[in-house]
Each structure stands twice: as structure tokens, then as C-alpha cells.
């Protein structure tokens, strides 16, 4: 099968039969109601994009201290779990499949947002300003987690996963990318610990593995994926010896038989291809990293399918093109997204993008 036809071929993902290999990547849209509740508008937004082989939701915090940005939804209260049912039911009614991305912000947070002091592997602040209800603020120095506290934060992913499945999600993706808590533990400059969760490569991957193990125990391997960004410097993280670090991590995750690994192209192609070789299961590839100079297009998708990826995730292209799958299939032009609408709230730039209009 050629890579050009592969994008629209079926793929088995755990217990799901995906009708195509197009994945809607997780994207923060900051449209949740007070209390971290999902809304009817969110249900409409995801339902509009249900033709994707798989939707991965925006990052959902597993605890209040794990919330990174204002306006984001949670999965740690009964009300939050109940609020997500309208979203999953709308997606399923439109024939779609949806995983919840579970995202613990760690040090990328602020007391103005959560009412709690951020935590991290070490007392090292993120680089840059973080978003708060009062505008951008310098990232605070996080409180370093005590060794005895670390397992409860790993377990928070599993607890949120239970809530996600109860809410009707088909599975969950652990957010291990882009400088958030799992990524912080992996990082050689954000994680300065000398206990079992730091120091060596084996120590730095331990938190990610324990979070994945707990989630698999909670909802099953077929419902558990993880997103990683090897070599990313987002929020100031740094990884020494990316091939060794992520090769070790993937070897540990392989024994768990996860549904997938979702890689962001934040490292050299040679490194990414090496990681593809070391991962025996389904690989989702995101060819363009966040904030990259362009959005993922059909050529990127075909190329990475030819290089061994199983599924391709599209981010920004899905914002302005709810019918992205059909546009890619038919070679139709893509509408441009307006970055001013990404996080402003409301339905403008959220529910107002339409499917392609054919001229009579």
C-alpha cells in the first residue's frame, strides 16, 4: 500500500477499529466553565471533528494542583466527570472515537490559577511567563516533591483515567511532552533529584513508567497511550542524550503493551527513526512541533507514513477545518486558522469554522 493511500486506510488501535489514520492532536482551547467543567460548546466542537480516526482531547488536569492554565477542564471531581459525558456522547453519536489527554502541569502553573503552590521534581522554575487569570506572570519556583509524595502524583493519572472511562472516553493519553510534569521528571535540568526518581536515566524515566503502570492497572493497556516530545526545550526543559533517555523509556513502556506512543517531531529525524525502531507498537507521529513554522499537511503525513508511522496527528489544521479528513481525501484547500481565537474563550473561532462549501 502506498503512503498516499495509507492515510485513509483502517487501523486497529487496541479494541478500536479506526476508519482512517488521521488523528486530531490535543490542543489547549481554554473554553471550560468554572470548576473545570466541560460545556455544550465543547461537545459541539469535538463532534464537528468526529470524522478523524481518533480525537485526542485538550489537556485535562488530574488534580487541582496539576492545572496549568486557566479555563482548562478537569477530571478529578464528580461534576467534571459528569460534564464530559455530553462530549463523548456527541462524538460517538457522530461516529467518532475520543481519548482524553491527561495533563499534569507540574511547575508550569501559578497560585493565581489554582490557589496552590506548583510542584515539580526539583525547585527549578520553568523558563518564561505562565498564563494566569490575571495575565502572564513569571513562572514561580515550584516546591520540590518529597519522595513519598511522588507516587500519589503518578497515581493521579490513573484516577483521572478511571473518571475518563466512566465519562465515556474510549481511552486516555498521558501527556509526557512539552515541558509538563512527566517531561520535567525526564529532563536533566528540571530534575535534579538524587533519590530513586532522579540522577540516572533509569531514575528519570521512573515517574513516567509508574504513571503508565498505574493507568494500565486502572483502565487497561488497550485504553492507554502516551505523548512524548524527545529533545523538546518547551518551558526550559533539556534532555541529555535523547536517544538513550527515550530508548530506555520506550523499552520500559513496551512491556506494558500500551495502545500507542505519540511522538512530536522535536528532535532530529535520525533520532525519531531510531525511536520508531525501538517501539514495537502503534506509533502516532506529529510531524510539526507546537509553535513550528507551519502546520502539518498531507505531504507531511504521507512522508511519515512512508517512514514507518502508523497514524498521523494534525493540530492547527483541525482548528479551522472541522472536515479535515474529507479535505485531505479530496485534495480540497484548507481554511486558515486565526491565532487570536486560540485561547480567547467563547464560540467565535471555535464553533464558527465550517465544512468546505462546494460551489453549485
Automatic annotation (TrEMBL):
Keywords: Oxidoreductase. It comes from the Bacteria. SUPFAM superfamilies: FMN-linked oxidoreductases (SSF51395). GO terms for molecular function: FMN binding; oxidoreductase activity, acting on the CH-CH group of donors, NAD or NADP as acceptor. InterPro entries: Aldolase_TIM (IPR013785), OxRdtase_FMN_N (IPR001155), Oye-like (IPR045247). GO terms for cellular component: cytosol. The keyword Oxidoreductase applies. Its cofactor is FMN. Residues 7-334 form the NADH:flavin oxidoreductase/NADH oxidase N-terminal domain. Belongs to the NADH:flavin oxidoreductase/NADH oxidase family. This is N-ethylmaleimide reductase. It comes from Streptomyces zhaozhouensis. The lineage of its organism: Bacteria, Bacillati, Actinomycetota, Actinomycetes, Kitasatosporales.
Amino acid at each position: 500500500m502506498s503512503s498516499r493511500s495509507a492515510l485513509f486506510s483502517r487501523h486497529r488501535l487496541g479494541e478500536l477499529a479506526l476508519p482512517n489514520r488521521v488523528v486530531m492532536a490535543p490542543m489547549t482551547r481554554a473554553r471550560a466553565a468554572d470548576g473545570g467543567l466541560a460545556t455544550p460548546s465543547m461537545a459541539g466542537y469535538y463532534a464537528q471533528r468526529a470524522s478523524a480516526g481518533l480525537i485526542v482531547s485538550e489537556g485535562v488536569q488530574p488534580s487541582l494542583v496539576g492545572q496549568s492554565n486557566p479555563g482548562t477542564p478537569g477530571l478529578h471531581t464528580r461534576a467534571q466527570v459528569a460534564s464530559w459525558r455530553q462530549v463523548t456522547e456527541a462524538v460517538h453519536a457522530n461516529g467518532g472515537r475520543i481519548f482524553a489527554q491527561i495533563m499534569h502541569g507540574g511547575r508550569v502553573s501559578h497560585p493565581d490559577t489554582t490557589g496552590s503552590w506548583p510542584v515539580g521534581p526539583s525547585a527549578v522554575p520553568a523558563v518564561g511567563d505562565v498564563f494566569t487569570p490575571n495575565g502572564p506572570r513569571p513562572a514561580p519556583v515550584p516546591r520540590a516533591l518529597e519522595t513519598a509524595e511522588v507516587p500519589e502524583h503518578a497515581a493521579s493519572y490513573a484516577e483521572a483515567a478511571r473518571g475518563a472511562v466512566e465519562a465515556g472516553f474510549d481511552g486516555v493519553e498521558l501527556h509526557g511532552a512539552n515541558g509538563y510534569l512527566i517531561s520535567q521528571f525526564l529532563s536533566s535540568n528540571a530534575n535534579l533529584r538524587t533519590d530513586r526518581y532522579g540522577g540516572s536515566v533509569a531514575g528519570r524515566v521512573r515517574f513516567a513508567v509508574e504513571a503508565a503502570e498505574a493507568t494500565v492497572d486502572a483502565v487497561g493497556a488497550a485504553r492507554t497511550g502516551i505523548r512524548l516530545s524527545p529533545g523538546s526545550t518547551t518551558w526550559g526543559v533539556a534532555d541529555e542524550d535523547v536517544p538513550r533517555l527515550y530508548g530506555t523509556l520506550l523499552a520500559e513502556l513496551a512491556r506494558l503493551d500500551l495502545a500507542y506512543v505519540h511522538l512530536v517531531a522535536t528532535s532530529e529525524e535520525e533520532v525519531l527513526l531510531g525511536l520508531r525502531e525501538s517501539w514495537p507498537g502503534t506509533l502516532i507521529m506529529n510531524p510539526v512541533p507546537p509553535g513550528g513554522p507551519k502546520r502539518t499537511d498531507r505531504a507531511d503525513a504521507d512522508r511519515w507514513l512512508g517512514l514507518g508511522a502508523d497514524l498521523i496527528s494534525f493540530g492547527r489544521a483541525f482548528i479551522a477545518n472541522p472536515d479535515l479528513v474529507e479535505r485531505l481525501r479530496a485534495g480540497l484547500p484548507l481554511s486558515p486558522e486565526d491565532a487570536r481565537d486560540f485561547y480567547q474563550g467563547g464560540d467565535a473561532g471555535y464553533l464558527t469554522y465550517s465544512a468546505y462549501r462546494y460551489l453549485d
